[in-house]
Amino acid sequence: GATASAPAASADCKGALSVPTGVLTGDQTRQLFEHARQHGYAIPAFNCTSSSTINCVLEAARDAKSPIIIQVSTSGAWFFAGKGIPNAGADKKKTLEGSVLGAVAAALHTRTMAKFYGVPVVMHSDHCAKKLLPWFDGMLKADEEYFAATGVPLFSSHMLDLSEEKDDENIATCVRYFTRMAKMGMF
Fold first, then answer.
1. CA 30-32-35 angle, 5° bins
2. Residues linked to residue 124 through DSSP beta bridges, in sequence order
3. What is the distance in angstroms between the CA of the first residue and the CA of the last residue of the chain?
4. Number of Cβ within a 10 Å radius of residue 90
5. Which residues in the chain show pLDDT less than 50?
6. What is d(CA 62, CA 21) in angstroms, rounded to the nearest whole number?
7. What is the pLDDT of residues 37-76, one digit of tens each?
C-alpha cells in the first residue's frame, strides 16, 4: 500500500494537537474543536464540488500547516457526481441519488488523498433541511456501511438544519438520526 510522511498536524497552532492526519472521527473532531477553542484559532471550512477543489483545499491546508473542514452541500455533491446522474427517480420523486453518490464520492476521495497531504480533515455535510432528508439518509447509510467494514464512519460529521420545522418535529427527527450516528461516534 501507499505510504506518506506527514508533517506536523498543525505546527502553527499553540500547544500540541493530538489528532491524527487524514479524515477524523467524531471524537477526534471534538478534540480538534476543543483545541481550537482553547488556543483561539479558527478552522476554515470549504464547500467542495470536485476532486480538484478538494485537492486544492488539502494542498493549502498542508502549506498553512492547518487543520481543515471539507464539506459538501446537496447541489455541490450533485455537481461532484455529474449532472448526468438524476436527483429524481423514475417516478419523479426527489430521491437526491445524484447528491448522495456525489457526497459519498467526495468523502471517499478525501479519505484517499488526505493522508498524503498530512493534515487533519473534518469531512462534513452542510445544511440538510427537511426536504433534503433523502440525501441525509443516503449519506448515513454510506456511513453505516463504511463503519461496518472499517470501524469508522465515512464522514466526520453531518449538519441537520431543521430550524424551519416545529420544535417537536425538529427534536424527534434529530433524536432519530443522532441515535444512529452515536453508534458510530459521530455528532
1. 110
2. 71, 157
3. 31
4. 7
5. 1-12
6. 10
7. 999 999 999 999 999 999 999 999 999 999 999 999 999 9
The whole model's pTM is what? 0.89
Q: Give CA–CA dist 69/49, Å, rounded.
A: 14
User: Which grid cell sits at 29?
Assistant: 473532531
Catalytic annotation, residues: 126
Nearest to 153 by CA among 11, 27, 14: 27
Displacement of CA 111 from its chain's centroid (Å): 10
* C-alpha cell belonging to residue 77: 455533491
Q: Exposure of 122 by Cβ count < 10 A (0-12 exposed, 13-18 middle, 19+ buried)?
A: buried
Write the burial class of residue 125 (CB in 10 Å: 0-12 exposed, 13-18 middle, 19+ buried): buried
Take residue 185 and report the three cell numbers written for it: 461516534
Rounded to whole angstroms, how far apart are CA atoms 56 and 50?
10
Q: How many residues does the chain have?
A: 187
82 φ/ψ sector (left φ>0, alpha ψ -120 to 50, else beta): left
